[in-house]
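Fold this complex.
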Amino acid sequence: MEPTEAERGSQVVEDRPPSEAELVSRARRGDTEAFGRLVTAYQGIAFRTAYLVTGEAAEAQDATQEAFVKAYGALGRFREGLPFRPWLLRIVANAARNRRRSAGRRYGLQLRAEEAAPRDAASPSAESAALATERHQRLLAAVNGLSADDRLVIGARYFLDLPEADIAALAGVAPGTVKSRLSRARARLATALGGDASGWLDD
Amino acid sequence: MTDSIDVALQALATELAFPPTPDLRASVERAIARPARRSWWPSAWPRAVALAVLATLLIAAAATALVIAVPGLRLTFLPALPSPDIPDEPLATRLALGRPVDPETIAVGIPAALGTPDEAYVIGDDRVISLVYAADDRLATLGDSGIGLLVQVIEGALDREQVEKLVASDPGTSVAAVQVGDADGFWITGPPHLVRIIDPNGGPSTLPTRLAGDTLVWESGGVLYRMESAMGLEETLRIAETIP
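Structure:
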């Protein structure tokens, strides 16, 4: 995670936090503390990216840890001046894919507990909420059923709100092709939902 | 219908459960706090040598026709090629690619059309990165190597020559100016030519020459690219243009 505005504001001018480029540069020279600060800054998005792929928290944690260690060892290959996050997330996604591949069991993304809980459908509003929950569950099941690549681009775009440059790095494609990749993934999602999909927004 | 799915996915995002992020800083710092992560690469080698890589083309007749220059590349035309320094060693040695690294940690020069390479190597301080793709149905093998495509990415200091290609004056050899996207480049075909990394200090190269097959070489954004393939110009160009 990038520092929040409040965190930045708490720093006095003389104590300006080092920029990402400075931290990367220091880490390349073997400064593990500088790399630790990069870990703190990016572990949130890195972990959620890994979770998109694995669908399971412990595997996502292991993949994220492994990816950070790999990234440190590969800093010499990182082209200075480029943004760090897309490069890191690519390594994270690859580590997570490998873990998912070797895992015997398949996991999937889940709804929040309060959203997934059965509701009392006695009132019209509760009935509406129950229908919404059912739609979410059907849509999520379809997302979980997509190929790993499709699920990753869909998840990166909609669930992590990542910019195209990061999605391109994750998927290992040229930035100009992200829109078409997303479009194809949505089309496959629509196919998977079949006739059910036409009523998504009815109420 | 995909429009409604677009809206539905946005709504779904607010209802998804993501587990709390674990704090990994301490465990990562412990894992990386080990002494020296340098490789076995001989430290006596001038670091600058690592900044070099490429090749030499042998073709005299075409020389005068070359009206473009690719930064970082020296083309040398000879009446005949000398013997390569490493003709019959195991593949990685023969190709002088450097030390192997985890292909997943490479994020530059990767053709989107192919994705993560099967193997990756770096030379010296990682300024020369080599991506190796195994031959398969799409990628014809280079000679008897089993390699379908070799991509080399040479970064930095292209104001001096990094790679020399020695090309023989052979009627079967051609060096053609081509466009790779918006960048100028050469497509070198015919009998194998020699490739060598140049010592930027001007001394004799400490890296060996080797024989190379058909090669596309171009410069873009201060990076010198070299793609060696047996697929012909059209398909090689198509793949090259998917490098972000």
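DSSP finds five helices and 14 strands in chain B.
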